[in-house]
Amino acid sequence: MTSFQSVAQARDDVVDVYFFHSKTCPHCLEQKPLMTYIDQHNKNVEVTSLEVNDNPKEWQEFQKARGISSGAVPRTVVEDKMFIGYSEAEGPLEYIPVHQGYIGYKNQIIAAIETAVGSPINLPKTDQTTQQQTSPPWQVFLIPFWYLCSYPFLKDQLEKRQGKRYWIGGLLATTIISLFVFLALTPDAVIKTFAQGLPFPLFVSTIALADGFNPCAFTVLVILLSLLTYTRSRKDMTLVGTTFIITSAVMYFIFIMLMVLAGSVFLENYGVRFMQILGILITGAGLINIKDYFWFKKSISLSLSEKQQSTINKRAGKIVRNLRNAKGDRKMFLAALAGTVLLAVFVNIVELGCTAILPAVYMTALLQYCSDTIGLCHISWTALYAAIYIMPLLAILGNFIYSFKSTRLTENQGRVLKLVGGLFMLFFGLAMIFKPQLLTLG
C-alpha cells in the first residue's frame, strides 16, 4: 500500500482508491484488511492510504481540495464517489448530507471499485462468507430493572417528596445509561436499519406533541384565559384564545423554517461538527430541564422569568380591558384581537429558550429526510409540526370554554413537564453526538 501524495496522476490502466483512516477508529481497523488485500491482489487497483492523525496537513489538504468539511473516518474515495464509515452488512447506495458521502457498506465500496475497473476484482475468501448479525445486548436493561426492585426495600426512606424525586432521578439515570450502553454495543447497521424502518410521520408527531407540552406556553395561555373570565363571554374567549393559538402556530412555523434554512447551510458546510455541537447544546438543555424536576427554577432554568411573566400579565390585562370596554364597538374589539396577536408574537420570542431545543432535533432529521433543496417537503412537514404543536393548547382552550374556568399549572405539573421534555432532549442530544444514525428515519 503506497503512502499518500497530495497530487496523484491518474493512469489509464490503474484505478486510484484513497482510504483515510485512524488507528483509534474501530470501523477503520475493520475495513483496513479488505483495502490491503484489494491493493495487493489487484494490479489494476492502487489503494493510497492515509492515517489522518499522523498526517494532519495532508488530510486537511485533501479535505480542502475536495470541499469536505466533515472529518469523519473511515472515508473511502473511488473516483467521484466518497464513502463514509464501514459496515460488513449489505446496503443500498445512500447519500448522507451530514457526512458529505455515501454510507460505507462493503458491497457498495466493492461495486464502485469494480465499476471503475470495468471488471470483477479479487477479494479474500473470508469476505465472501455469510455475515453474522450481532444480537443486540438486551441484558443491559437488567440494570434499571434491579434498581426498580429496590423500591419496596426503600419505601420507608422515600416517604418524603424530595427523597422520592432523588430515587426517580436514579432510576432515570440508570435507564439512560443502560440505553446508551445498549446503543454503543449494537452494530451501526442494525441501528440504521431500525431507524429507517420507523415512519417519519410518527417521529414528527412524537417530537411535536412532546414540544407542545411546554410549561412556558401553558403558563402564558393560562394567564390569558384566567383574565378572560372577567369578560363573561364565551364568544370573546373563543375568538381571543383561538387568535392567540393560531398566531403562536404561525410564529412557530416561521421560526422553525428559519432554523431549517440556517441549519441546511451549517450542515452542508460543517457536517458532523455542526451535528455534534448541536447535540451538546441539546444535551445541556435537557440536563437543565431535568434539574428543574429536582430543584425547580433554581440557578439556570429554561423558564419564563418573573419579569417576563409580569410583562405578559400586563399585556393580557390590557386585552381584557379592551374587550370589556368594547360593548359592541368594533374598533375596540379589533384592537383587542390585535393586542392578542402582538402578545402571541412577544411570547413566542421570549420563550425561545423553552421551545428552541426539540425543533433543533426535528430540523436535523428533516434535513436528512428531505435531502433536496429547501422546498415543499420541508414546508409541508413543518406545517404539520406546527399544527401538532398547538394541539395541547387547543385542548386547554376547549376545556376552559366548556367549564368556564381556568386551572393554573401547579409546580408539580411543571416539574413533570420539565422532566419529560428534558428526557427527550437528553436522549436526542446524546444520539446526535454518538449515534446520528438514529436520525436517518424513514
Automatic annotation (TrEMBL):
The chain crosses the membrane at residues 166-186, 198-227, 239-267, 273-290, 333-362, 382-404, 416-434. The keyword Transmembrane helix applies. The lineage of its organism: Bacteria, Bacillati, Cyanobacteriota, Cyanophyceae, Coleofasciculales. Keywords: Membrane, Transmembrane, Transmembrane helix. This is Uncharacterized protein. It comes from the Bacteria. It comes from Coleofasciculus chthonoplastes PCC 7420.
